[in-house]
Design a protein that fits this description.
8 helices
Length: about 140
């Protein structure tokens, strides 16, 4: 628990530009793991879907969250909303499906990426918080 608190606090203390920069680096590292989800062959789709799902819990997201994801991923409104419309799954669904297949390095990187996404507006849903903590335990 303390590890997650310290990790989250360290990213909450970052300035917006630093959060974007860190999240972009993290995005690239996660793509290198080659994680694909439900038959999709492109790791970029997994990470993009993960990012959109993280900020669009129950299809509710702030303008700041949307802008942050678009800045990090280098996508426009159309791509962002296409991901919103195309996915019925929440972050919880996605992580529940893959969490046990990931090695510790991938789990740590995804946890860090998600913490950066959550830090952009300093909110995280309780079920998402629990799954992120499971990634780093």
């Amino acid at each position: 628990m303390k590890l997650w608190s310290e990790l989250f606090q360290s990213v909450v203390d970052m300035e917006y530009d630093e959060l974007v920069s860190e999240a972009r680096k993290c995005y690239e590292r996660i793509k290198e793991f080659g994680i694909v989800y439900k038959g999709d062959s492109d790791p970029k789709s997994f990470v993009t879907g993960l990012a959109v799902a993280a900020v669009a819990t129950d299809r509710q997201f702030s303008v700041l969250e949307q802008s942050f994801v678009m800045d990090v991923l280098g996508i426009d409104d159309d791509v962002f909303f296409n991901y919103i419309c195309e996915t019925d799954e929440t972050l919880v669904d996605i992580l529940e499906d893959i969490i046990d297949t990931l090695d510790i390095e991938a789990k740590s990187e995804i946890a860090y990426f998600l913490s950066l996404l959550c830090a952009c507006d300093m909110t995280v849903a309780p079920d998402e918080n629990e799954l992120i903590r499971r990634l780093i335990v």
